[in-house]
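EI: anyone free to look at a 79-residue chain?
SC: sure, send it
EI:
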Amino acid sequence: MLIFKSTFQAFKYMTYSDRLKRWAVVRLLAKMRRVTVARFVKESDADGFAHALRRLEPQATFIVVFDPRSGQQHEGDRY
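SC: here you go
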């Protein structure tokens, strides 16, 4: 895992397509853990996907978040 000194420096190393996918659908797990399920360019696409996941897995908790640092792998994310 790469550790960047600043957000600007991290932004510099992201690909163009990674910079576009700012909206993430995240599944919340026990003990404050989370898993990023998917990333989207548009918020409405992320909302629709989260809605479908909630219908398929009603016992799970899915949320849509804006990730200004998208493209960096966060601890707990699955890619």
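EI: Residues 43-56 form the longest helix (14 residues).
SC: 👍
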